[in-house]
UniProtKB/TrEMBL annotation:
Organism superkingdom: Bacteria
Lineage: Bacteria, Pseudomonadati, Bacteroidota, Flavobacteriia, Flavobacteriales
Residue intervals passing through the bilayer: none
Species in which this protein is naturally found: Bizionia hallyeonensis
Name the record gives this protein: Amidohydrolase family protein
Annotated Amidohydrolase-related domain residues: 348-391
Keyword match Nucleus: no
Length: 431
């Protein structure tokens, strides 16, 4: 009797784990595929009606009209549907956090203040249910970024259908993330301080601490490097141009100071992340050819005296000023990254042209992250990382994916959520 009990337990565990397992990554592309008849949203502002998109060995070979020759190919009839390049989530915590309330599943914030040597990629979990839930909305790539501290660590960029972090990586150690000190602080009501903003009396000291760290790291790198200092070693990429510096800052003074600080220390590869008041310094941004990754528009204004709809129209304000702008998701809850296309849709609803809004999560993000040579648009020579939607992918009512591909591999669009939807649909259908 004992043996039967053990067998039943093992089978139960196996079936239970299988039913909730991560979807198996797609198989390598073996035949040329042609998507025929769809409206192709290229990702650079261009739209092609009745398109034919051909890809082979994981790469797009042509994007043309329906007159193209498709003999010998696997044909996907997408007439009446829409094709988009895979959406790119910048500055996300995907794969680093599974359940916010469970500390053991949270690897986004390491101990320490100046820790550029901490690589977020090592902690990336390809089996994450959160990661899996991104794909049905068209989010197929992400920059996995560390949080916390003053210098949080190093990010990497991954595609969201892989067996392990090595397979997932499409650009490793792309940037170091610096949380710029806030020039202002809010009154702490629990200490009896007045509410509202006030100057941060420690601001200059905090900036000087960052400056001292940079100066010391440069001196170390020019010396004999003994004893080995891992944080200083990790800063090398910022000084030789191989890595970008992502500065997380929102206020006008902080943005201005951060730009001058980076120039003084000869760190030219700078990206402003957050940039809630970037619209006030567009001249400085354009003069220095600096991009901005804005916060998700579904947020409140940073200050009481700002327009209530400023987060919704910030993307257009920067676009109109000819500043390269994309959307980042760092301030959102991890699972809300799946709403990335709808954030771009909100920017379109508040004045941006729909195809320009699409660029905020495709070609613009690809340029800002330094991966535009192989992703971000539907163009020959680039990775076949794309999807087919029944309708407008920036509208939550019509963002209904029918097929999706990463590097030419067709991927599963099933997730824990879709499994539950099917399960309970059947339950109520049969009642």
């Amino acid at each position: 009797m004992k043996h039967y009990t053990i067998y039943i337990l093992v089978i139960t565990l196996f079936v239970g784990s299988f039913s909730f397992a991560q979807q198996t990554p797609g198989s390598k592309q073996t035949k040329p595929i042609a998507i025929v008849g769809a409206t192709a949203h290229i990702g650079n502002g261009q739209v092609i009606e009745n398109s034919v998109i051909v890809f082979e060995n994981g790469k797009i070979t042509s994007v043309n009209t329906t007159n193209s020759n498709t003999s010998g190919m696997t044909i996907i009839d997408a007439k009446g549907k829409h094709v988009y390049p895979g959406f790119i989530a910048a500055n996300s915590a995907l794969g680093l956090v599974e359940v916010d309330a469970v500390r053991a599943s949270d690897d986004q914030d390491e101990v320490g203040g100046m820790i550029p040597h901490v690589r977020s990629l090592i902690a990336y979990n390809t089996e994450s249910k959160v990661v899996e839930s991104m794909r049905p909305n068209g989010v197929l790539m992400a920059q996995v970024s560390p949080k916390g501290g003053r210098i949080s660590g190093t990010s990497s960029i991954v595609q969201l259908d892989a067996w392990n972090w090595e397979d997932a990586a499409i650009k490793t150690d792309d940037a170091i993330h610096l949380n710029w000190p806030s020039a202002f602080s809010r009154g702490r009501w629990w200490l009896g301080e007045p509410a509202g903003l006030k100057p941060n009396k420690d601001y200059a000291e905090q900036v000087n601490e960052v400056a001292a760290f940079i100066t010391d790291s440069k001196a170390y790198l020019k010396g004999d490097k003994k004893p080995i200092n891992l944080p200083f070693e990790a800063m090398q990429g910022l000084y030789n141009g191989k890595q970008k510096l992502f500065v997380h800052v929102n206020d006008e003074k902080g943005i201005t100071d951060a730009i001058h600080f980076a120039k003084d220390h000869k760190m030219e590869q700078l990206v402003i992340v957050g940039g809630a008041e970037a619209y006030k310094v567009t001249g400085l941004l354009k003069q220095n050819n600096l991009p901005v990754l804005i916060n998700t528009p579904h947020t409140l204004p940073a200050n009481d005296d700002q327009d209530y709809d400023l987060p919704f129209k910030l993307g257009k304000l920067l676009y109109d000023a000819d500043v390269l702008v994309g959307i980042q998701v760092g301030n959102a809850e991890n699972f809300q990254t799946r709403n990335l296309p709808f954030y771009a849709g909100t920017c379109a609803a508040y004045g941006m042209d729909k195809e320009e809004a699409l660029k905020l999560i495709t070609s613009n993000n690809a340029k800002i992250l330094g991966i535009d040579a192989f992703v971000g648009t539907l163009e020959a020579g680039k990775d076949a990382t794309l999807f087919i939607s029944a309708g407008d992918a920036l509208d939550m009512r019509t963002n209904i994916l029918t097929r999706a591909f990463i590097q030419g591999r067709e991927i599963s669009l099933e997730s824990h959520q879709t499994e539950l939807w099917r399960r309970y649909s059947e339950k109520y259908k049969n009642q």
